[in-house]
Amino acid sequence: MRKLASVQRILSVSPIEGADAIEKATVLGWQLVIKKGSFNVNDLCIYCEIDSLLPDRPEFEFLRERKFRIKTIKLRGVVSQGICFPLSILPAGDYKEGDDVTELLKITKWELPVPAHLQGIAKGKIPSFVPKTDEIRIQVIQEFLDKFKGTECYITEKLDGSSVTYYVKDSQFGVCSRNLEIIEDPENTLWKIARELDIENKLRSLNKNIALQGEIVGESVQSNKLKLKGQTVFFFNAIDIDGHCFYDMNNFFELLEQLQLTSAPVIEKSWILINQMEEIMVLAKRNSLLQSQALAEGIVIRPVKELRDPQLDTPWSRFSFKVINPEFLLKHGE
């Protein structure tokens, strides 16, 4: 579960050229702008990540014009992601580094409204036998970059669309959005694409319990930032439901080739993981492979051979992470 607001330590504070009232700070792997003198190195603070939606409270009044939403901004040429508050805004208590205070502060996640043609009619929650399509952000996994340094990985482009899961389990075919299973509806985009690409029959032909997860992009999806024609899906996960595991890279691409389905754009199939976060983040500052004139949302990095770690707060403890392009966030107000 993503910690939108947590107790964290100020790792560094440095001046911003030409700025008298603000300075740059680092929390986890995030860089943000703070009021000069408000925090020192090693201070504990409450750090709120981008996408946090803060409640209407007096201490957050200065955020009213931004509708209490925390997003990526640029101040004096410095990209700032997130915001810090003193521990004094918390109720009395003994707080330690890493504590999740999201619910305590009544902070929720900001999300774009889902249009009707993507939302559909819910059959129920997404089944427990398939994981949600969540990727952890690079900024919070430095210890795992250190641990898995040297691992052979592959890199794909992260697409800004609407996630979908298609599955066959015990002869039942299902279609799910990020959080819900969707009843069949000819007007629903997730189902339309399933029928257009014959996904049900393709999955049934495998004679196993299996799921595919992908990103739907195109017209009327997330403002279609890549200016694509029509709508389609690019897959990024294959799941062995009975084995409770994701497919390794080679098996995944072989499966898609067999089913004549398309993967998310591949940037690199053999890249050795480094633990320098800033160097990895540079890789995400790129244009899309689908539309060379448009910024990519970012990249996803995962091992060629699947890795799990019980300390990872990710679906099925999988080592896989996203790196979002800050230029994309700034351009699109996110």
Describe the structure.
The protein has 334 residues and is an alpha+beta fold. The chain contains 7 helices and 21 strands. It is globular and about 65 Å long. The chain has 2 domains: 5-109, OB fold (Dihydrolipoamide Acetyltransferase, E2P), CATH 2.40.50; 116-331, 2-Layer Sandwich (D-amino Acid Aminotransferase, Chain A, domain 1). The model has no long low-confidence stretch (mean pLDDT 96). It has a 5-stranded antiparallel β-sheet with strand order 3-2-1-4-8, with no helix packed on it. It has a 5-stranded mixed β-sheet with strand order 11-21-20-12-19. Strands 14-13-16-17-18 form a 5-stranded antiparallel β-sheet. A hairpin with a 2-residue loop joins strand 2 (22-27) and strand 3. It has helices at residues 116-119, 142-147, 189-196, 199-204, 249-259, 277-283, 326-331, and strands at 5-15, 22-27, 30-35, 44-48, 52-53, 73-75, 78-80, 83-85, 108-109, 122-125, 136-137, 152-158, 162-169, 172-176, 180-182, 210-218, 231-240, 245-246, 266-272, 298-303, 321-324. Helices cover 14% and strands 32% of the residues.
From the coordinates shown, what is the CATH architecture of the largest domain?
2-Layer Sandwich
The value of Rg in angstroms is: 21 Å
Helix percentage range: 10-25%
CATH top level of the largest domain is Alpha Beta
Task: Please give a handful of descriptors for the protein shown.
alpha+beta, 5-stranded mixed sheet, 2 domains, OB fold (Dihydrolipoamide Acetyltransferase, E2P), D-amino Acid Aminotransferase, Chain A, domain 1, 21 strands, 334 residues, single chain, 5-stranded antiparallel sheet
